[in-house]
Amino acid sequence: MMETSMMNQSQVIKFFMNKTLLLFLLLSCGSTRAQMQTDTLTFSFEGKRYSGLIDMPAQKKASALIVIAPGSGKTNMAKDGFYHDLRTRFARQGIACLLWDKAGCGKSEGVFDYNQTVQNEASEVIAAIMEVKSRNVPGSEKIGLWGISRAGWICPLVITQYPIAFWISVSGTDGEENYGYLLEKNFLIEGRSKAQTKKLVGEWFKGIEIARAGGTFEENLKATEDFRRDSFVIYLNGNSVPTEEGYLQWQKKIKTGEIIFDDKTGLAIYVPEFDKMLSKINCPVFAIFGEKDCNVDWKKTLALYKRTIGKNPGASLRTKVLPNCDHGMLQCKTGGIREDLSNAVSPPAYYDTMLSWLKEKGFGS
Questions:
Q1: Assigned superfamily of 5-177+272-360
Q2: What are the structural domain ranges in the chain?
Q3: Inter-CA distances, 93 with 17, 36, 57, 301, 322, Å
Q4: What is the pLDDT of residues 117-127, one digit of tens each?
Q5: pTM of the full predicted structure?
Q6: What is the three-class DSSP state of 261?
Q7: pLDDT by residue (tens digit) across 87-138?
Q8: In terms of C-beta density within 10 A (0-12 exposed, 13-18 middle, 19 or more buried), how is residue 136 classed?
Q9: Which residues pair with residue 41 across a beta bridge?
């Protein structure tokens, strides 16, 4: 779709998360019941009741609690066993886990909004944290965050508003949208030449420039003709057709400042002054990336973390880059959106490095 680059990104990540969701459900050794006990937990946010799950270690008292902040896309925890394998491993180490369905998903009330701002999602996370704190849930005296992809914006926003004990960032983002990077990497994987890729990505940028300058819907369509007709773009957008109504809504958000852009890169800014925000984080941070991540520019994010969190004496930063892993930390060949991941798994190092780091920092045993 050409209505909004933000909506494009949400659709792609939604597809990616849906495609790989079940691959997170590979059960670890031993029975699930022997590792953790799961119960329901609800909380209220902006007049809606959210339905969640709370995992407790079955063999020991929880020494900490991890709040899971997922990436973009819908959730259905009860049906899909969201991040089951990850949660089981945390429980085995004596760490409780909290997660919930987004609005309009699963048993949560409301309507799912692809364009929910990261600022609003951060407030939602804090509402969930306040609920477990009010209930004195075991482990809630030490609350940490685990977040993937888009949660790379959400978690720092939470940390600026609530004291967090630690943060695990998986395939995290920098301060700007990543759709241009995603397009460039995947066009090349899809077989486009470097020249074709440059032209197609250039048209995408041109469409944004026209919208920012107050150009018409027709001008936008004309400037992005080859881009919109590309088979990979059609695939990403689910064969949807741009509408003038959607374009004008996007343009209105630009005019009112709801969507802002970096003039140097031409990319939308999700969190203003994101580097300054990261520099103020005063807790241990573990950041893990996949070397073949074709959704998020992990090298750019890694460099950002090192010059912000890594330079703060009040924080500690540990990073890990896993070879042959994609955006979802699954072993892959290309990392492309359309790669067949039906038999893909996460390498042992994905889990082991997180758990070792948590133990080293005094969270879990």
A1: Alpha/Beta hydrolase fold, catalytic domain (3.40.50.1820)
A2: 5-177+272-360, 179-269
A3: 26, 10, 8, 29, 22
A4: 999 999 999 99
A5: 0.89
A6: strand
A7: 999 999 999 999 999 999 999 999 999 889 999 999 999 999 999 999 999 9
A8: exposed
A9: 52
